[in-house]
Amino acid sequence: MEHKSLPILEQTYNFNLELYQLVNNFPKAHKMVLGNKILNMGNVILENLTEASYLRGKEKGEKIDIADIELNKILLFIRFSKDLSFTPFKRYEYFAKVIVDIGKQIGGWKKWQEQENKAHANSPQNSATNQTGFEDMFGIETDTNKSKNQAQNKGVTFNLESPIIKRYMDVKINNPEKVIAIKCGNFYKVFFNDAVYFQKKFGFKLRDLASKNCGQKIESCGFPVTSADKYKSKIENLLLIDDVSLKFITLQTL
Protein backbone atom coordinates (compact mmCIF):
# COMPACT_ATOMS: atom_id res chain seq x y z
CA MET A 1 0.00 0.00 0.00
CA GLU A 2 1.42 3.38 -0.95
CA HIS A 3 0.84 5.54 2.13
CA LYS A 4 1.85 8.78 0.49
CA SER A 5 -1.43 8.63 -1.46
CA LEU A 6 -3.50 8.76 1.75
CA PRO A 7 -4.92 12.19 2.59
CA ILE A 8 -3.18 13.12 5.86
CA LEU A 9 0.21 11.76 4.79
CA GLU A 10 0.03 13.34 1.36
CA GLN A 11 -0.91 16.71 2.85
CA THR A 12 1.85 16.50 5.48
CA TYR A 13 4.37 15.55 2.79
CA ASN A 14 3.39 18.60 0.71
CA PHE A 15 3.44 20.73 3.86
CA ASN A 16 7.08 19.73 4.40
CA LEU A 17 7.98 20.63 0.82
CA GLU A 18 6.52 24.10 1.35
CA LEU A 19 8.41 24.47 4.64
CA TYR A 20 11.68 24.03 2.75
CA GLN A 21 10.62 26.74 0.32
CA LEU A 22 9.68 28.99 3.24
CA VAL A 23 12.97 28.53 5.08
CA ASN A 24 14.96 29.01 1.89
CA ASN A 25 13.82 32.65 1.91
CA PHE A 26 15.00 33.29 5.46
CA PRO A 27 18.08 35.52 5.95
CA LYS A 28 21.21 33.38 5.77
CA ALA A 29 22.08 33.98 9.42
CA HIS A 30 18.74 32.56 10.56
CA LYS A 31 18.45 29.51 8.27
CA MET A 32 20.72 27.38 10.45
CA VAL A 33 18.88 28.11 13.72
CA LEU A 34 15.25 29.09 13.26
CA GLY A 35 15.01 27.55 9.79
CA ASN A 36 16.41 24.17 10.84
CA LYS A 37 14.19 24.16 13.90
CA ILE A 38 11.08 24.52 11.73
CA LEU A 39 12.28 21.92 9.22
CA ASN A 40 13.12 19.41 11.94
CA MET A 41 9.67 19.74 13.48
CA GLY A 42 8.05 19.25 10.07
CA ASN A 43 10.11 16.10 9.54
CA VAL A 44 9.16 14.77 12.98
CA ILE A 45 5.46 15.27 12.20
CA LEU A 46 5.73 13.41 8.89
CA GLU A 47 7.88 10.61 10.33
CA ASN A 48 5.57 9.97 13.28
CA LEU A 49 2.38 9.99 11.23
CA THR A 50 3.95 7.58 8.75
CA GLU A 51 5.16 5.28 11.54
CA ALA A 52 1.75 5.46 13.23
CA SER A 53 0.12 4.15 10.07
CA TYR A 54 2.13 0.92 10.47
CA LEU A 55 1.52 0.42 14.20
CA ARG A 56 -1.31 -0.66 16.47
CA GLY A 57 -2.50 0.06 19.99
CA LYS A 58 -0.43 2.08 22.44
CA GLU A 59 2.53 2.54 20.09
CA LYS A 60 0.29 4.01 17.40
CA GLY A 61 -1.27 6.43 19.91
CA GLU A 62 2.15 7.59 21.11
CA LYS A 63 3.26 8.42 17.56
CA ILE A 64 0.04 10.33 16.85
CA ASP A 65 0.46 12.29 20.11
CA ILE A 66 4.03 13.27 19.20
CA ALA A 67 2.91 14.50 15.78
CA ASP A 68 0.10 16.49 17.40
CA ILE A 69 2.46 18.19 19.85
CA GLU A 70 5.00 19.05 17.15
CA LEU A 71 2.23 20.45 14.95
CA ASN A 72 1.23 22.89 17.68
CA LYS A 73 4.86 23.88 18.24
CA ILE A 74 5.63 24.48 14.58
CA LEU A 75 2.83 27.05 14.29
CA LEU A 76 4.47 29.08 17.08
CA PHE A 77 7.84 29.06 15.33
CA ILE A 78 6.33 30.05 11.97
CA ARG A 79 4.57 32.87 13.80
CA PHE A 80 7.93 33.80 15.27
CA SER A 81 9.37 34.03 11.75
CA LYS A 82 6.42 36.22 10.75
CA ASP A 83 7.00 38.58 13.69
CA LEU A 84 10.66 38.82 12.66
CA SER A 85 9.50 39.79 9.14
CA PHE A 86 11.00 36.62 7.60
CA THR A 87 7.56 35.32 6.60
CA PRO A 88 4.94 37.56 4.92
CA PHE A 89 1.63 37.74 6.75
CA LYS A 90 -0.29 36.09 3.90
CA ARG A 91 2.14 33.17 3.91
CA TYR A 92 1.75 32.87 7.66
CA GLU A 93 -2.04 32.80 7.26
CA TYR A 94 -1.72 30.08 4.62
CA PHE A 95 0.50 27.90 6.80
CA ALA A 96 -1.81 28.43 9.78
CA LYS A 97 -4.77 27.14 7.76
CA VAL A 98 -2.83 24.09 6.57
CA ILE A 99 -1.72 23.32 10.13
CA VAL A 100 -5.30 23.61 11.41
CA ASP A 101 -6.48 21.25 8.65
CA ILE A 102 -3.81 18.65 9.45
CA GLY A 103 -4.63 19.07 13.14
CA LYS A 104 -8.29 18.25 12.48
CA GLN A 105 -7.29 15.09 10.67
CA ILE A 106 -4.97 14.09 13.51
CA GLY A 107 -7.84 14.74 15.91
CA GLY A 108 -10.10 12.45 13.90
CA TRP A 109 -7.41 9.77 13.87
CA LYS A 110 -7.00 10.07 17.65
CA LYS A 111 -10.76 9.66 18.17
CA TRP A 112 -10.76 6.56 16.02
CA GLN A 113 -7.74 5.23 17.92
CA GLU A 114 -9.55 5.71 21.24
CA GLN A 115 -12.55 3.81 19.87
CA GLU A 116 -10.32 1.00 18.61
CA ASN A 117 -8.58 0.73 22.00
CA LYS A 118 -11.95 0.41 23.76
CA ALA A 119 -13.19 -2.15 21.24
CA HIS A 120 -10.07 -4.30 21.68
CA ALA A 121 -9.62 -3.78 25.42
CA ASN A 122 -10.54 -7.38 26.17
CA SER A 123 -9.19 -8.93 22.97
CA PRO A 124 -5.72 -10.46 22.56
CA GLN A 125 -3.46 -8.50 20.23
CA ASN A 126 -2.92 -10.16 16.89
CA SER A 127 0.81 -9.70 16.46
CA ALA A 128 0.83 -11.64 13.21
CA THR A 129 -1.26 -9.06 11.33
CA ASN A 130 0.46 -7.00 8.66
CA GLN A 131 -2.35 -4.47 8.26
CA THR A 132 -1.54 -0.82 8.85
CA GLY A 133 -3.55 1.65 10.89
CA PHE A 134 -5.22 3.10 7.84
CA GLU A 135 -6.03 -0.40 6.60
CA ASP A 136 -7.70 -1.17 9.93
CA MET A 137 -9.63 2.08 9.89
CA PHE A 138 -11.05 1.59 6.41
CA GLY A 139 -11.27 -2.20 6.60
CA ILE A 140 -8.84 -2.65 3.71
CA GLU A 141 -7.78 -6.28 3.36
CA THR A 142 -4.44 -6.89 1.67
CA ASP A 143 -4.71 -9.91 -0.59
CA THR A 144 -2.12 -10.96 -3.14
CA ASN A 145 -4.36 -13.74 -4.50
CA LYS A 146 -7.28 -11.65 -5.75
CA SER A 147 -7.41 -12.88 -9.33
CA LYS A 148 -10.45 -15.13 -8.76
CA ASN A 149 -12.42 -12.39 -7.03
CA GLN A 150 -11.55 -9.85 -9.68
CA ALA A 151 -12.44 -12.24 -12.48
CA GLN A 152 -15.91 -12.43 -10.98
CA ASN A 153 -16.13 -8.64 -10.54
CA LYS A 154 -17.48 -7.01 -13.67
CA GLY A 155 -18.39 -3.39 -14.31
CA VAL A 156 -17.05 -0.34 -12.49
CA THR A 157 -13.83 -0.82 -10.52
CA PHE A 158 -11.86 1.47 -8.21
CA ASN A 159 -8.42 1.93 -6.72
CA LEU A 160 -7.11 4.08 -3.86
CA GLU A 161 -6.55 6.98 -6.28
CA SER A 162 -10.15 6.96 -7.54
CA PRO A 163 -11.83 10.29 -6.67
CA ILE A 164 -14.73 8.65 -4.86
CA ILE A 165 -12.40 6.48 -2.74
CA LYS A 166 -10.12 9.40 -1.89
CA ARG A 167 -13.19 11.44 -0.95
CA TYR A 168 -14.44 8.61 1.26
CA MET A 169 -11.07 8.47 3.05
CA ASP A 170 -10.98 12.27 3.48
CA VAL A 171 -14.41 12.26 5.13
CA LYS A 172 -13.82 9.09 7.16
CA ILE A 173 -10.60 10.25 8.78
CA ASN A 174 -12.36 13.40 10.00
CA ASN A 175 -15.52 11.52 11.02
CA PRO A 176 -14.36 8.08 12.20
CA GLU A 177 -17.53 7.52 14.19
CA LYS A 178 -19.78 8.04 11.13
CA VAL A 179 -21.01 5.57 8.53
CA ILE A 180 -20.13 7.28 5.24
CA ALA A 181 -22.25 6.96 2.09
CA ILE A 182 -21.21 8.85 -1.04
CA LYS A 183 -23.60 9.67 -3.85
CA CYS A 184 -22.66 8.18 -7.21
CA GLY A 185 -25.32 8.72 -9.83
CA ASN A 186 -28.66 7.41 -8.56
CA PHE A 187 -27.09 5.45 -5.70
CA TYR A 188 -25.23 6.04 -2.46
CA LYS A 189 -22.18 3.81 -2.16
CA VAL A 190 -20.56 2.63 1.07
CA PHE A 191 -17.09 1.12 1.26
CA PHE A 192 -14.74 -0.96 3.42
CA ASN A 193 -15.90 -1.40 7.05
CA ASP A 194 -19.00 0.71 6.42
CA ALA A 195 -20.04 -1.73 3.68
CA VAL A 196 -19.51 -4.65 6.08
CA TYR A 197 -21.71 -2.83 8.60
CA PHE A 198 -24.50 -2.59 5.99
CA GLN A 199 -24.06 -6.27 5.18
CA LYS A 200 -24.46 -7.31 8.82
CA LYS A 201 -27.33 -4.94 9.61
CA PHE A 202 -29.39 -5.21 6.43
CA GLY A 203 -28.09 -8.31 4.64
CA PHE A 204 -26.61 -6.38 1.72
CA LYS A 205 -24.45 -8.35 -0.70
CA LEU A 206 -20.85 -7.13 -0.80
CA ARG A 207 -18.85 -6.77 -4.00
CA ASP A 208 -15.10 -6.39 -4.30
CA LEU A 209 -14.78 -3.40 -6.64
CA ALA A 210 -10.97 -3.22 -6.58
CA SER A 211 -9.33 -2.76 -9.97
CA LYS A 212 -6.94 -5.44 -11.25
CA ASN A 213 -3.75 -3.80 -9.97
CA CYS A 214 -5.17 -2.29 -6.77
CA GLY A 215 -3.51 -4.75 -4.38
CA GLN A 216 -6.32 -4.90 -1.77
CA LYS A 217 -10.03 -5.45 -1.60
CA ILE A 218 -12.44 -2.53 -1.88
CA GLU A 219 -15.65 -4.06 -0.59
CA SER A 220 -18.75 -2.05 -1.40
CA CYS A 221 -22.51 -2.03 -1.47
CA GLY A 222 -25.11 0.68 -1.97
CA PHE A 223 -28.69 1.83 -1.88
CA PRO A 224 -30.85 4.03 -4.15
CA VAL A 225 -30.94 7.77 -3.53
CA THR A 226 -34.69 7.44 -3.13
CA SER A 227 -34.10 5.22 -0.06
CA ALA A 228 -31.81 7.71 1.71
CA ASP A 229 -34.43 8.81 4.24
CA LYS A 230 -35.18 5.19 5.10
CA TYR A 231 -31.57 4.42 6.02
CA LYS A 232 -31.04 7.75 7.78
CA SER A 233 -33.91 6.86 10.07
CA LYS A 234 -32.34 3.47 10.83
CA ILE A 235 -28.69 4.58 11.20
CA GLU A 236 -28.29 7.52 13.55
CA ASN A 237 -24.67 8.18 12.58
CA LEU A 238 -25.15 7.85 8.81
CA LEU A 239 -23.44 10.68 6.91
CA LEU A 240 -24.55 11.23 3.31
CA ILE A 241 -22.05 12.95 1.01
CA ASP A 242 -23.32 14.54 -2.19
CA ASP A 243 -20.27 16.08 -3.86
CA VAL A 244 -20.78 18.33 -6.88
CA SER A 245 -17.21 17.46 -7.87
CA LEU A 246 -18.22 13.83 -8.37
CA LYS A 247 -21.30 14.47 -10.49
CA PHE A 248 -19.37 15.05 -13.69
CA ILE A 249 -17.02 12.07 -13.37
CA THR A 250 -17.94 9.23 -15.69
CA LEU A 251 -18.11 5.71 -14.33
CA GLN A 252 -15.16 4.70 -16.48
CA THR A 253 -12.85 7.13 -14.66
CA LEU A 254 -13.92 6.34 -11.08
Kindly describe this structure.
The chain has 254 residues and is an alpha+beta fold. The chain has 2 domains: 3-119, Up-down Bundle (de novo design (two linked rop proteins)); 139-253, DNA repair protein MutS, domain I (MutS, DNA mismatch repair protein, domain I, 3-Layer(aba) Sandwich). Helices cover 58% and strands 9% of the residues. It has 10 helices and 5 strands. It has helices spanning 7-24, 28-52, 57-83, 89-119, 133-138, 147-152, 163-174, 192-202, 228-234, 244-247, and strands spanning 179-184, 187-191, 207-208, 219-224, 238-241. Strands 3-4-2-1-5 form a 5-stranded mixed beta sheet, with helices on both faces. Strand 1 and strand 2 (187-191) form a beta hairpin. Helix 1 (7-24) runs antiparallel to helix 2 (28-52), helix 1 packs antiparallel against helix 4 and helix 3 (57-83) packs antiparallel against helix 4 (89-119). The longest helix is centred in the middle third of the chain and has 31 residues, at 89-119. The radius of gyration is 21 Å and the shape is elongated. Mean pLDDT is 78; it is low at 122-134, 136-154 and 244-254.
